[in-house]
Amino acid sequence: MSQTTIPEALRGDVETLWTFHDMHHKLRACDVVVALGSHDLGVATHCAELYQADYAGRIVFTGANAPTTVERFPRGEAVHYREHAMTLGVPEDAILVEPDATNTGENITFTRQLLVEHGIRARSVLLVSRPYQQRRAFATCKKLWPEVEVTCSSAELPLDAYMDSIGDVDRVINMLVGDTQRITVYAERGFAIPQPVPAEVENAYQRLIQAGYTTRLL
Questions:
Q1: HSE on the CB side for 1, CA within 13 Å?
Q2: Is the overall model pTM greater than 0.85, yes or no?
Q3: What is the tens place of the pLDDT at every residue in 2-35?
Q4: Domain limits of the chain?
Q5: 51/32 Cα distance (integer angstroms)
């Protein structure tokens, strides 16, 4: 059975990783919002909020399916994100859908190609993801789309509120641990730019592995 609250003995370590993955970027107007598909429909909600606040006039939803999203989003993550955003008032003609990407690198590469196909030259993007995916998404984008200015954003929820919104504490902690590993491993494999991992983050990461949060490790 999944935890319903963060184990108190691990709270400090979970908060350390949570803070590390938030890029703490200040919102700014950009040419396009690029939303990375996942199990979290809050990504699409946040995109609608950004659009309505005039941070960008166009949204690209990108993502096919992962094994964890097929049941929830049977027509694909990007398609369901689009439909959700439209129920929140985003007009259809403000949205482009990239339905084929199956990882973050493809999200970036296929979105870039899609914009070119539509004659859109993006000099700046608002990159929207789950909160704990920000740092990895940023590093991937800077590697694969280096000329674009990237501002990362996610739904502005405190850690516990985000856990409640997902409804599965173990899943979120495992994802935090997995994304921390990927910061280093993906840079070593050439998928992303390198980023320093502070000692306190590395130590928190190792303790969470020792506590059994290993399902998202490579």
A1: 3
A2: yes
A3: 567 899 999 999 999 999 999 999 999 999 999 9
A4: 8-20+158-210, 25-153
A5: 9
